[in-house]
Amino acid sequence: MRILLDECLPRRLKAHFPADFVVHTVQERGWSGKRNGELMRLAEADFDAFITLDRSIEYQQNLAGFDLAIFLLRAPGNRLADLLPILPDLLTSLQSPSPGQLRQVPDGT
Questions:
Q1: Fewer CB within 10 Å, N or C, the chain?
Q2: CA 85 to CA 89: how far, in whole Å?
Q3: Quick one: how far is CA 67 from the chain centroid?
Q4: Average of per-residue pLDDT across 69-88
């Protein structure tokens, strides 16, 4: 699975994914500062999933138009310490990506 981490996420999060995931950051790709629509168009060519903390993404974009699964992390903040506790839920969710759909992690149910 090829994953792109949004620039609002700490780059160090990448190191906490299992080796069978190919994880890149927006900064590594040179896409910092791109608006969500443009960023997602670029990402869908090379990635299976986009992970973000941007809670407004579902209201700003028609997600169904992208061949990319979008995962919205629901955490108290964007520090690594805030994100690591939900990483197991994210890894489980990544096992069944749904292109063009937003999945919140954890799902809150």
A1: C
A2: 8
A3: 14
A4: 95
